[in-house]
Please model this.
Amino acid sequence: MSKALIIDDEQQMRRLLRMVLESRGYEVSEAADGQLGLQEAAFQRPDVVLLDLGLPGMSGLEVLKRLREWTDVPVLILSVRDQEGVKVEALECGADDYVTKPFGTAELLARLTVIQRRRFTRQSAEVVVGTLKLDLLHHEAFVETAPIKLTPTEFALLKALAEHAGRIVTQNQIIRQVWSGQCSDQSEGLRVHINHLRKKLGDTGPRIVNEPGIGYRLESLADQAHPSETVR
Amino acid sequence: MNTINASHKPLRPQVSVDVVSQFSWGLTTLFVLASTCWVLLPYTGYLFSALVFLMAIVLARTRCNRGPVLTMAVVSALVWNFIFIPPQFTLHIEKPQDIIMFAMFFVVALSMGHLITQLRAREEALERHHREREQLLAAKHRAELLAESERLHRTLLDSVSHELKTPIAIIRTALDGLGEGNPFAAEIDTANRRLQRIVENFLEMTRVDSDALKPHLEWCEIGDVLHAATTPLQHELSHHPLVITGTEALPLLMLDSRLLAQALGNVLHNATIYAPDATPIEIHATLENGMLEIRVRDHGPGLPLGTEDQLFDKFYRAPDSPAGGTGLGLAISRGLMRAMQGCIEAQNHPEGGAEFRLSLPVKTRHV
Model:
């Protein structure tokens, strides 16, 4: 049974989330502020943390930074804010994904499942996302077993997205991974390569979804079965 | 450069008038003092007049520049020599001590004049410096006040946003827990979504009104903008086929895709309200001379005549619009487009239906 920790100052929200999660077999603990949340995290060793960004006192962002000093437990950000900057900052501080309140239960559970899937471990030379298969050993890519031709940059880009399939990856994170060591602004190059990749993946491969001002998410057709109408 | 010269020209004669008046003031003063000393000469002796002249030079600093002061020094030395030092009315000096005294007077008068004018210049510089400092301080103070009020505004908006959206979020999650199939729950859900839209519109209108919107430009694909605009409207758009044309040919665009998507989303939402179900909504994008234009056309009843401009006013609602809605959506769109240096217009399409045009200047890059 996996353990979830909810850090949110709204009691009603915590109670509801507890009901939703317990009905899915999670063992739930909760905390009403950042300080308590950090204590609970150390004490309970949860498998996943749901963290509200707008906490009183110690901000959610601060809690996240403190958590990341000693654990890489998956963290899902809950936020009512529209400010893209805060979300990007949270993601770059190590949050795994976010949902914006009000969110649907299905969307929340789908995100939790994705971020709890063990983070990419380099035990296999293959990454599979829906119909897409990446052979890291030979630098080859297949959609429904048909090989697609990729340039080295496109391959690196697709690998960066596929390793985090279903999860949001910020523009800076992609650029750091694909163009590491090159200091010039690569955001334009990123757009160009995303454009090429989309064409090569076609209609049968996974989709590269843009979230304005934040980054990209590689969604396999199976992931898209989950309704995500409130993604904003 | 030309304008600066032009603006300086009228000052020229003024400056010379000023200098002339300073010269005449200096010489008149010397004349008056010399006459007085001449009258007093039998009682005071000729050394007295030398001191009077020196005093005049010291006093001249309050109103004269370098040139007039130095001239006064030279003229007073000559006048003293000519009129007062015996033998009078010659420049010739008889006694050796008088020669020394004349030389000393000359040196003292000149150097005093020099020092005094320097002092004056320094005082003026100091005063100017002081004034500039005051102005800078005032500007800094104003900027700090502005930043503080902006911060306060943002904090207030954030906290109001939090307070209003949290209950809506709780209702949403609780409804999901109830499960589908309950008709009462479905009604609450519809009302809750409507409430959410109203709250978001009010908050967004406040943001647009407070000029707190700073477009964040980045390279975008038009397809991503349309995706972001239509995704939150999936439910409403499910009754209208979307026909999108012109987007394939567009290059990368430098713009704030979030703001544009929001402006476009409100226009699309508006179309879904007025156009009958199952009628298509057409989106056509073009790029011409660095202007991106997105046209949204519906096949509804069109705009009531004469409302093409009022439409974008805050709280304006067309006479026959259905209940619900705040009359803010299009006003927000206009605010967002303006924040991006763009504009939005509406008109009736010649073949029926309303047509909205959103246009804005963009930098482009071909893929």
